[in-house]
Amino acid sequence: MILTNTTVLGTGVLGSQIIFQTAYHGLPVVGYDISAEALDAANHRLDALVQNYADYFDSGDRAKAQAARDSIKLTTDLAQAVQDADLVIEAVPESLAIKQATYQALAAVAPQHTVFATNSSTLLPSDIAPFTGRPDKFLALHYANHVWQNNTGEVMGTSLTDADDYEAVVDFATRTGLEAIRVLKEQPGYLLNSLLVPFLEAASHLLVNGVADAATIDKTWKLGTGAPKGPFEIYDIVGLNTAYNISSQGDDTSKKFAELLKSQYIDQGKLGAATGEGFYKYN
Ligand code: NAD
After folding, report:
1. Over pLDDT 70: what percentage of the chain?
2. Which end of the chain has fewer CB atoms < 10 Å from its terminal CB, N or C?
3. Of 149, 126, 129, whose CA–CA distance to 137 is shortest?
4. Helix/strand/coil for 137
């Protein structure tokens, strides 16, 4: 099966990038979110992505990226959003309760042939599969942030995922400009986050324990390894809401980091690079 018509649930940091990436590679895509306010925010994100794609792929010429932007449809009506979908990619907040409610609502309205893929960073597809109503047509397709440039597409099924649907999602990933990464067995965090999350957690513990400040930790990592970014620069790109959700489920030191993120950044609207400020300030 060739997956063409695509619907993305959740139009936040990652959802808006997944929508744009799919549209830029010529596929019809609809974005769904829960409120008009969320769609307003999505429109701003999508407008900003035009320049990212133009700069990255077309030497600043906006024509192709703008045409992709103009092709994107957004709605708050779930049934309408998925009525023609071959593939639904879910990018709602990283909470099992929200994902469960989302899949139960989705299962009630999606066509029978539609394949569902979660972009969850930390949950296993097996945790979500029971709520999908079609565990054989459900798997994970995990994007990295700044998808136009960091274009991994980690494809991870469960023991129940149909092999043809798995291959169809590998093919979709390839046709939409991703380097499809086959994750051969279920692994919390796939390949990328199995490496990244412990690294970021170690940095957060150094900060919370008062061993060094964020800038010093970043500088040490970059100077010592030649890496282009330090852990707190990466936190700003990931987004501090997602960092909060992950840290608040960790050990006591991680929970302290979650409290710090909330009180010093999130409550002041400093959610990372996407809002212009997190640990660092951005234009
Ligand atoms: P986000 O908070 O930026 O966006 C979530 C969006 O979902 C918001 O627009 C919100 O309005 C919407 N939403 C809330 N409840 C909803 C519902 N019931 N139905 C539909 N939409 C709903 O979060 P994000 O960073 O884009 O993360 C989304 C998913 O992508 C998570 O599972 C996360 O683990 C994963 N992910 C995030 C990153 C990252 O770097 N931020 C990278 C890879 C994967």
Report:
1. 100
2. C
3. 129
4. helix
Atom of ligand 1 nearest to the CA of 118: 32
Domain chopping of the chain, boundaries: 6-183, 193-275
Q: Any long-range contacts for 257-260 (C-beta under 8 Å, 24+ apart)?
A: 257/204, 257/205, 257/207, 257/208, 260/207, 260/208
Alpha-helical (H) ranges within the chain are: 13-24, 36-57, 63-71, 78-82, 96-109, 125-128, 163-175, 192-208, 214-225, 231-238, 240-247, 252-264
Residues forming a β-bridge with 116: 88, 138
Best of 116, 121, 275 for a ligand 1 pocket test (most atoms within 8 Å of beta carbon): 121
The reply to whether ligand 1 has any atom less than 6 angstroms from the CB of 119 is yes
Same fold for the pair 6-183 and 193-275: no
pLDDT at 12 over 90: yes
Query: Above 90 in pLDDT, residue 255?
Result: yes
State mean pLDDT over 5-17: 98
Fold annotation for 6-183: Rossmann fold (3.40.50)
Distance between CA atoms of residues 30 and 5, nearest Å: 8
Q: pLDDT digit string (tens) for 82-120? A: 999 999 999 999 999 999 999 999 999 999 999 999 999
Does residue 18 have a pLDDT over 90?
yes
Quick one: pLDDT at residue 283? Answer: 85
- Is 9 a pocket residue for ligand 1 (Cβ < 6 Å)? yes
pLDDT exceeds 90 at position 47: yes
